[in-house]
Amino acid sequence: MDPLELCYASAGELSRLIRGREVSPVEVIDAHLARIEATEPTLNSFITLLPEHARDAARRAESQIQAGNYRGPLHGIPVGLKDLFNTAGVRTTSGSRILDNFIPTEDCTVAARFQQAGAILLGKLNMHQFAYGPTGENFDYGHMHNPWNPELVTGGSSGGSGSAAAAGQCTITMGSDTGGSVRIPAALCGIVGLKPTYGLVSRAGLTPLSWRLDHPGPMVRTVEDAVIAMNVIAGHDPKDQATSTREVPDYTAALTGSLEGLRVGIVREYFEAPLDSEVESVVRAAIAQLSEMGASVTEVSLPMFADAQAISGTILMSEAAAYHRDLLANDGDKLTPSVRLRLEAGLFVTAADYLKAQQARARFNFEMSQLFNDVDLLAGPSEPITAPPILAQEVSIGERTVGTVGALTQYTRPYNISGTPAISVPCGFSQSGMPVGLQLAGRPFDEVTLLRAAHAYEQATDWHRRRPPV
Amino acid sequence: MAATRPRTLLLHERDDWFTLEVTELDSDNAIDRQTFDFLARAAGLNLEDTHMDELFPYVQIALAANEGLKNIDITGFEPDASFDPNHFYQV
Fold it and tell me: What confidence tens digit (pLDDT) does each residue in A363-412 have?
């Protein structure tokens, strides 16, 4: 099989080939390492690449499978982890030179579950420093570059995860999402990004940004691959007190291809916010397609959408500052200036405002829950714009000029507040050839319905089959 | 908090996490320099660092961007420190 085809094959396709012994894990890993060599440092997706580790693991996987010990759909599949997922014996920098020599002694739970399932770690992926930024710029390890146009951002903070999956460097990558950091790079790089329900995937062994807003999630090229990843990583973890003890379903049940009977709500306020007209057209066409496929689409209202920034901003600032307080005191001058400012600003939020933000979060979540009395899913744009230029601080949306950072998080933050699952799936391209994402959101712990809709839409379109020019 | 150095800030003055729209904003109610210095000292920051002159306006912007919290009616809603996303749902 052509090596490039192996790199763009989904985990579902690769697993069928590997299980049938039509392709060996060694071939798969070699193809991906060649792809990485051909596309780095153009994309700069990786902070640490592990070629020897990966080749050794591939040879072991090959032997195991030949001996009849096939572990499941992730056996022999190349994965990459955002560099805030602790990996035993492999440095984990959180995107900062301050941690350049930090080598964890223990895997985070996600890495351990991937390894148990036979997945092969190719490397640690570039990210916005300490996950505190949505653009994918990094002054310590170099900026991440969008595979569809390397002059543009990947989005962040899990930018390397976005570019690596989009460019066929890895089959499955993982990101973490505090204000959109899985869904933003997924939308801007043209891949699938799932932020699962808060408490469904363990955060144990991840560098926190905000304890009550952080959600680890898969970033992949197909919805089926999100299902494959979730079937391995979801579920209770005694090391993470926030994880739910509820039984985890087999997410494969979501892959029905049907939207029949689903009720989809379109949040009116999303289309009253700054929204690029070209992006709006693409997203409205995708929503129309959901309707044509059998979903009933109605308009709903979430007046507190306008409060999402103040609520999540206050919680995020406080918690990020609390976690990084010692680092600020000892190594603040070694931080990227913008990240240092963001972290230090949280030291000035009062306890009263932090608690008020939690009260407001409760009201926000109550209002969100009321929407789901009438609909099964919410749909809208993942992003109001396509990828902006690297280091652009402002973007124009129609006649309005808005801050890049605020714009990139405007549609994603609400679901970090609610903790409800949300996914970005590719739904088209701009005239300039940049991807646009459709964001779907569901009830807590109802990933099956969310993935079902995303998969059905994906299968009716070919956006996910397109490849970037890099 | 009374402002000792009132000024008008532009929300896009710098790359910051907190702001959406480029709007003129009166910073009088955010935080004054005296209060800033007091809290910075309490937080263990070095007030002699010239970085403080950059941090002060940034904090003004960041806190002002979250001012909207004051207008949210939270009657009947308690802080949810152990966040449960399923709290309001009948699933």
Answer: 999 999 999 999 999 999 999 999 999 999 999 998 899 999 999 999 99
Number of neighbours of residue A207 by Cβ within 10 angstroms: 25
Of B14, B78, B86, the CB nearest to A445: B86
Tell me the sheet residues that pair with B25.
Answer: B9
Which pLDDT does position B66 carry in this prediction? 87
Question: Considering only CB atoms, which chain A residues are within 8 Å of B59?
Answer: 344-345, 348
The owner of tokens 């964001």 is: A439
Identify each DSSP E strand in A243-384 by its residue range. 263-267, 296-300, 377-381
Q: Which residues of A are catalytic?
A: 82, 157, 181
The whole-angstrom distance between residue A57's C-alpha and the CA centroid of its chain comes to: 25
pLDDT of A65 higher than 60: yes
HSE of A332, CA atoms in CB hemisphere, 13 A? 21
Residues contacting residue A399 through CB under 8 Å, at least 6 positions apart = none
Q: Cβ B20–A274 below 8 Å, yes or no? A: yes
Which tokens go with A347? 């030291």
pLDDT band at residue B29 under the 50/70/90 scheme: low
Nearest CA in chain B to A384: B20
The backbone torsions φ and ψ at residue A34, rounded to the nearest 5 degrees and listed phi first, read: -65, -40
A26: Cβ–Cβ under 8 A, 6 or more apart, which residues? Answer: A55, A58, A59, A62
Pairing verdict, β A422-429 and A435-442 = antiparallel
Give buried/exposed letters for A66-75 (b at 16+ CB in 10 A, else e). Answer: eeeebeebbb
- Using DSSP, state whether A330 is helix, strand or coil: helix
Q: Which of residues 4-63 of B touch A (CB under 8 A)?
A: 11-12, 14-22, 31, 36, 39-40, 43-45, 51, 54-55, 58-59, 62-63
Residue A452: how many CA atoms within 13 Å on its side-chain side? Answer: 22
Query: Residues A463, A229, A122, A212: is their CA dihedral positive or negative?
Result: positive
**Contact by Cβ (8 Å): A252, A225:** no
Residue B68: CB atoms within 10 Å: 17
ipTM of the complex: 0.87
**Can you state the percent helix, strand and coil of chain A, rounding each to 5?**
45, 15, 40
pLDDT digits (tens, 9 = 90+) for A166-225: 999 999 999 999 999 999 999 999 999 999 999 999 999 999 999 999 999 999 999 999
Distance (Å, rounded) from C-alpha A313 to C-alpha A331? 24
Task: Give the number of other Cβ atoms within 10 Å of residue B46's Cβ.
Answer: 13
Neighbours of A46 (CB within 10 A): 24
Structure tokens at A331: 């190594």
Q: Is A358 on the interface with B (CB under 8 A)?
A: yes
How many Å separate Cα A276 from the centre of its chain? 22
C-beta separation of A141 from A93 below 8 A: yes
Task: Report yes or no on whether pTM surpasses 0.80.
Answer: yes
Cβ-count burial A267-279 (b if 16+ within 10 Å, e if not): bebbeebbbbebb
pLDDT at A63 over 70: yes
